[in-house]
Design a protein that fits this description.
Elements (H helix, E strand, L loop, with lengths): L9 E2 L3 E3 L5 E3 L7 E2 L10 E4 L2 E4 L8 E5 L13 E5 L14 H4 L13 H10 L4 E4 L8 H12 L4 E6 L5 H8 L4 E5 L5 H8 L4 H13 L3 E8 L7 H15 L5 E5 L14 H13 L5 E4 L4 H4 L1 E2 L6 E6 L2 E5 L30 E3 L7
Parallel strand pairs: 8-9, 9-10, 10-11, 11-12, 12-13, 13-14
Antiparallel strand pairs: 1-6, 2-3, 3-4, 5-6, 7-8, 7-18, 15-16, 16-17
Helix pairs in contact: 2-3, 4-6, 7-8
């Protein structure tokens, strides 16, 4: 199908009519209740012709080849390039959003030309990408498009990665993750106060998504927490959060503690000091997290992966660059033979830290 032959507005499944005549969208816990012609908070789901539709099917805010470590995923096909794209809008309202130009966009002109799912899959294959990432804004809100892209990618043996805040209802969540191979979920904080005040949401649905992914799916899971000075970086909160993860998700879920920089509506908040990232990582390790990392900083000691048994370094990293490798092709420690959790398939890739924007139309047949 050529880009001009498919619609950008498509019907959706998860909604129901209310007694007062409005229609409620049931994709995420915001439960937007819409009159005819209204958009949800996410901007891309709207009520048209007495149903909820996705208005941006096949439209993207741009395509780029990234290192998979940027998602961040450190234990899923390390060193390989991943074709990344997003759309516009978001179902949370995080004041610190670091992709606000896309996720907070309310204008269709931020979106690129139409791209059928098959074109994205074939472009990824032609570009040597082992996977495609739904990122920059949350794929929850364009789940129908993401799932169709994932199906086209799977037909070519290309994996699908969701980069998400995990803010999703149970039934659409189950359908969405049947199409995903890996996910990085933002656990933004461990208090409902933070989620309500800073993000316009609630904590429990995110915890429910984490529990679902770990207990009910084969999806490879990693977690990211952006540490914001004075908001979610206290020793007590990090201690409670890491204890909950170990108790409920186990010790093998990789965790990335990333540095905040002033952006969007938090321009007066200082950047995260490296010492805060190191402290968070140390708390996580003390509480049993086997694979804890510091993000957005050059610190090879805490960017690297260590064997959980012999504690020798098995993957050396400096941010997105792999500096050393002591793993077998199927993920066993090259020093003692212990299993290192992850999805490993042969030697690491050599993509490195490069970021390459692409024009998808160059790969159209």
């Amino acid at each position: 199908m050529s880009p001009s032959q498919f619609p950008t507005v498509v019907p959706t499944q998860y909604w129901h009519k209310l007694d007062d005549g409005r229609i409620q969208c049931d994709v995420c816990p915001r439960y937007c209740k819409l009159h005819e012609g209204q958009q949800g908070l996410c901007f891309v789901r709207a009520r048209e012709h007495d149903q909820i539709v996705l208005t941006t099917y096949g439209r993207s805010s741009g395509y780029c080849i990234d290192p998979i470590e940027k998602k961040p995923l450190y234990h899923f096909l390390p060193g390989t390039p991943i074709l990344s794209f997003g759309t516009a809008g978001c179902n949370l309202a995080c004041k610190f959003c670091q992709n606000w130009d896309m996720s907070k966009a309310r204008q269709m002109d931020v979106l690129a030309d139409q791209a059928p799912p098959e074109l994205i899959a074939s472009a990824a294959q032609a570009l040597g990408c082992r996977s495609v990432a739904y990122t920059y804004n949350d794929p929850v809100i364009f789940m129908e498009y993401a799932m169709d892209v994932a199906a086209a990618c799977h037909a070519l043996d290309i994996k699908s990665v969701a980069v998400t805040a995990g803010y999703m209802c149970a039934e659409p969540r189950a359908e969405f993750y049947r199409h995903m191979d890996a996910a990085n979920v933002d656990l933004k904080a461990f208090t409902d106060r933070f989620y309500h005040k800073v993000c316009g949401g609630h904590l429990q649905p995110v915890l429910d998504t984490l529990l679902y992914l770990k207990s009910a799916t084969p999806v490879w899971l990693e977690i990211t927490t952006l540490l914001i000075p004075g908001e979610n970086d206290s020793t007590q909160e990090i201690d409670a959060m890491t204890r909950w993860v170990v108790d409920n998700l186990g010790t093998d879920v990789p965790w990335h503690f990333s540095a905040f920089h002033p952006d969007w509506k938090m321009l007066d908040t200082p950047s995260t000091p490296v010492s805060s990232l190191v402290r968070a990582r140390e708390i996580a390790v003390k509480n049993g997290v086997r694979y804890a990392y510091t993000g957005n900083v050059h610190r090879e000691e805490s960017d690297s992966t260590y064997c959980p048994q012999c504690r020798q370094r098995v993957i050396g990293r400096d941010w997105y660059e792999i500096t050393s490798w002591h793993l077998s092709s199927d993920g066993h420690c090259g020093h003692c033979g212990a299993t290192v959790a992850g999805v490993f398939d042969g030697p690491p890739g050599g993509w490195g830290a490069r970021r390459r924007p692409i024009r998808l139309k160059d790969y159209a047949a």
